[in-house]
Amino acid sequence: MDDPLMLARVQFALTAGSHFLFVALTLGLATLVALMQTVATLRGGGRGDAVSARMVRFWGQLYVINYAVGIVTGLVMELQLGLNWAGMSRVTGGVFGAPLALETIGAFFVESTFLGLWIFGWDRLNRWVHLGAIWVVTVTAYASAYFVLVANGWMQRPVGFELVGGEARLTDVGALLTNPAALLAFGHVVFGGLLTAGFFVAGVSGWHLLRRTAEVAFFRRSMRVGLVTVLVALYPVVMFGGVQFAYLQPTKLGGGDAEAAVADFTARFGPDDYMAPGLAGAGEAVMVMMWSLMHLVAIVALVKVWFGRWLVRGRVFHVLMVVSVPLPYAAMLAGWVFREVGRQPWAVYGVVKTEDALSDVGSGTLAVSFVVFAVLFAVLVAVNAWLLVRFARRGPEGASLGAAPPAEPAAVMAPTF
Questions:
Q1: Is 265 helix (H, G, I), strand (E, B) or coil?
Q2: Domain range annotation of the chain
Q3: What 3-state DSSP class applies to 353?
């Protein structure tokens, strides 16, 4: 542990990868909860309203748990970005920092404010206002993801800037915001989040149906929601992922363009290993394999959705859905490795090398930082998993989100003489 650069890179990989696990489920589950509440609100007092309303409370509670713990990981990750990568901020802060500022001020604060209104406004706000609150939360969550991907897309494919005195200055806001490396990645993440939420909802429903729950109607409908979401999201995920190959760095793809890029970088920055590391290719292979497995599960899901009575039967199918929950997570992490590791040795491709982006800190300081952040994120991931499992196992009867507070016992009046 005497290489500061490797320590900083591994530390950021662990923290960013861990945070993204929360983001994907948050995006997808927020959308599903908003759709569930829309159905419940539109039905009013209809026959299906009671089940729909209970679904909102149950799945909404799991969404809030994942969101709350995920916020902590995001804040800690941004702290680490400032501590370990000051060199990047000095050169690219004028461009890279702009979308991150928009994400924090324009999206995150709006999202958290309306989430508070949604949580504490249950049965206090007009039902349409309450429905509007969860949709604002959902839309701003996607806006937050978009601005983060604008920053990341610029690192992958820097556009709309110029270097003045060794510092990047933004010259074209439109080019920054419409960068294909950001827009296509955003579409990929949107449907990846839905895919993650679909498998999560189907997996939790499968667990309860496997145990022959009394809440058959509740989890049959939840299972259908999860499976339909998987079917809707599966092909757009691979479509947005495939189109991104047209905009990948030539050193990641190989071939004649890669040789030309290496020659250009060598002339400008000196000799180095400018080709993508082998780990990037391994990430791509795992990502494709995970998608193939999800595709096979989706074929089974299609049959189950078509023949609705089978959703409650078939213990093997229920087990399959439970064990399939990690598949989209593994695919996301593998895809992230392919995208980020494949950019090396660049922090901002063709502009700032990773070794130049590192803060001026010693290996001892980074070693302590690495241990602290690794332990902290391991605890947060474990706590989130424990809370999700605990509240998911309780079922809809154990959902406390939106429940009325217990009534105060009537005061006993002392007799007066």
A1: helix
A2: 4-396
A3: strand
β-pairing verdict for 161-164 and 346-348: unpaired
Q: Specify the length of the chain in residues.
A: 417
Query: Which residues are CB-contacts of 381 (< 8 A; sequence separation ≥ 6)?
Result: 18, 21
Classify 2 as helix, strand or coil.
coil
pLDDT in tens, 177-205: 999 999 999 999 999 999 999 999 999 99
Pairing of strands 167-170, 352-353: unpaired
C-alpha 204 chain-centroid distance: 19
Give the DSSP H or E segment for 209.
helix 180-210
Taking the C-alpha atoms of residue 9 and residue 277, their distance in angstroms, rounded to an integer, is 14
Whether the link from the prior residue into 250 is cis, omega within 30° of 0, is no
302: pLDDT confidence band, cut at 50, 70 and 90?
confident
Is residue 246 packed enough to be buried (19+ CB in 10 Å), middle (13-18) or exposed (0-12)? exposed
List Cα–Cα distances, 137 to 78, 80, 112, 179, 187, in angstroms. 21, 26, 7, 25, 18
Cα 45–51–57 angle (5° rounding)? Answer: 105
In degrees to the nearest 10, what's the CA dihedral of 402, 403, 405, 409?
A: 160
Closest alpha carbon to 39 in 224, 270, 200: 224
Q: What is the pTM of this model?
A: 0.90
Report the distance separating Cα 34 and Cα 108, nearest Å. Answer: 18
**Rounded to whole angstroms, how far apart are CA atoms 69 and 183?**
27
Which class for 191: exposed (0-12), middle (13-18), buried (19 or more C-beta within 10 A)? buried
Enter the tokens of residue 239: 């479509």
145: which 2 tokens? 């993801």
pLDDT in tens, 45-101: 444 468 888 899 999 999 999 998 888 888 777 777 777 888 888 888 889 888 988
Residue type, 213: T
